[in-house]
Structures are given as structure tokens and as C-alpha cells.
Structure to design on (272 residues):
């Protein structure tokens, strides 16, 4: 009997030790306020656009960013470890273009895949005149796979953030996503947008230097995505040089970034 009691006592001691060790190893849940403050600090440090946002827009973005990071999984390709910084910078820029909308537009987004650098995809291009399909490969910095997934090069995301020159792979691809998930729109606005595209194509054909990336002349879908990049990053220039296009985007996004304050100079950023 004494032997049984000793065994039971030892078992009780082991279980108590295991419970206490487990309890000590579980970190306390982080409060939303602490997490949001950390995100805001990161955005202040690494994202110049944050300095331009009005206070109300900042609050809305942080709230929407919380939902985005909670619902959208991130995956690293080829062993890339996705950090909180990656998720926050991508998520903030994705949420930026939705600030004029009252609802959360990313319910259909299944995830974001991050590559270290540009990535290669297979493609098949069909000649509209002959019907001949040419298969090959293309190197990309970003890709929106319809309403399912966004694929991004982290190197290009960082370059976009640092340069703020109208090239922004996150804004570009998430504009594609919104277009896929919310097709349609005002017919008159579509006609006006096509007219703006025709102007860009004519300028490119004449060999003129254009504000918008000539890549936008490829088709109406790419034109919209390229125009969105400049709408947010070089809004004043776009409004001055392409007033009709600016108004179309302002009415589409329900935002007026040219009216936001000029960005405050930030300290030089370190390499990540």
C-alpha cells in the first residue's frame, strides 16, 4: 500500500511540474493596442505614404489592416520566411486603395505568396489574327491570380516603398484583384478611361516621354493598374498632367490623395 501511495505521489509531482512548466512557457496574449502601436511604428519608419495620410484615414487603415492580417494567410516561396514586417507593409498598401470604401473587399482573397525576388511563370499567348498560341516563360515582380491569390516579389515591394516614384507592385496587383472581384462600373467612365488609354498609346507611338509607365498602354486592365500606382504615389503630377484620368480614379476609389499633405522627410532606411 505504501508503495502505491509513493507511486501516486510521484505521478502527482511530475504532473504538477509539467503543468507549471507549460504555464510558464505560454506567453501572455498580446493586446490589440500593443500590436497596433507596433504596426504604426513600423509604418512611420518604413512607409512614406503614412506621413501623408490624414489622421482619420490612418485610423481606418489600422483597423482594416487588423482584419486583413487576421484573415489573409501569407506563404513564403522557396523557403522564404515571411516576417511581420512583410505582412504589415503589404497589408497596409493593399488596404490603402480601399479606404474610400465602407466594406471589407478581401473576403475572396485566399492568400498572398511572397518570393524573395522576381519569379518565373509559364505563359501562353494567342495571336488574335492567326490564332497561333506561343508558349514560353515570363519574369514577374507581381501577379494577381484572378480573385484567388496575389503573388509578390519582396525585393520589388521594398523598392516600391522606398522609391515612391509611381512604381508600386502592391497597389498594381491589388488593383487587378479589385477589378477581378468587382467588375462593371459606369459605362461613361469606362469610355473616358479608354480615351485616356488611347492618349497614352499615341504618346508612346510618337516616342514621347510620358508620366505614366508605357507598360500601361498594353490594355485597359494594365492601364488602370498603372494609373492607380501614380494616383496614389504621384497624385499631384497626375492631376496636373492628366486631369480627366485623375477625376476618374478619384471617383472610382472615392479618395483624393492629391489633397493630402506632402510627405515628411524620413530618416534613411536600413537594408532588410
Amino acid at each position: 500500500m505504501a508503495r502505491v501511495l509513493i507511486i501516486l505521489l510521484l505521478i502527482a509531482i511530475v504532473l504538477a511540474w509539467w503543468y507549471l512548466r507549460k504555464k510558464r512557457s505560454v506567453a501572455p496574449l498580446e493586446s490589440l493596442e500593443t500590436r497596433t502601436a507596433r504596426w504604426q511604428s513600423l509604418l512611420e519608419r518604413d512607409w512614406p505614404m503614412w506621413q501623408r495620410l490624414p489622421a482619420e484615414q490612418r485610423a481606418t487603415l489600422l483597423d482594416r489592416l487588423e482584419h486583413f492580417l487576421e484573415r489573409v494567410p501569407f506563404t513564403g516561396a522557396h523557403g522564404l520566411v515571411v516576417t511581420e514586417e512583410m505582412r504589415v507593409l503589404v497589408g497596409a498598401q493593399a488596404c490603402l486603395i480601399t479606404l474610400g470604401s465602407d466594406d471589407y473587399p478581401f473576403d475572396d482573397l485566399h492568400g498572398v505568396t511572397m518570393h524573395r525576388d522576381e519569379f518565373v511563370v509559364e505563359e501562353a499567348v494567342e495571336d488574335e489574327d492567326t490564332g497561333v498560341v506561343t508558349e514560353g516563360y515570363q519574369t514577374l515582380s507581381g501577379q494577381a491570380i484572378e480573385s484567388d491569390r496575389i503573388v509578390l516579389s519582396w525585393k520589388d515591394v521594398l523598392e516600391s516603398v522606398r522609391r515612391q516614384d509611381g512604381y508600386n507592385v502592391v497597389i498594381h496587383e491589388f488593383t487587378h484583384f479589385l477589378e477581378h472581384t468587382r467588375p462593371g462600373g459606369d459605362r461613361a467612365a469606362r469610355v473616358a478611361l479608354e480615351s485616356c488609354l488611347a492618349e497614352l498609346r499615341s504618346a508612346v507611338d510618337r516616342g514621347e516621354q510620358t508620366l505614366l509607365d508605357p507598360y500601361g498602354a498594353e490594355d485597359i486592365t494594365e492601364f488602370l493598374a498603372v494609373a492607380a500606382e501614380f494616383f496614389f504615389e504621384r497624385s499631384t503630377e497626375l492631376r496636373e498632367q492628366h486631369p480627366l484620368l485623375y477625376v476618374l480614379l478619384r471617383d472610382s476609389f472615392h479618395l483624393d490623395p492629391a489633397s493630402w499633405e506632402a510627405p515628411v522627410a524620413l530618416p534613411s532606411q536600413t537594408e532588410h
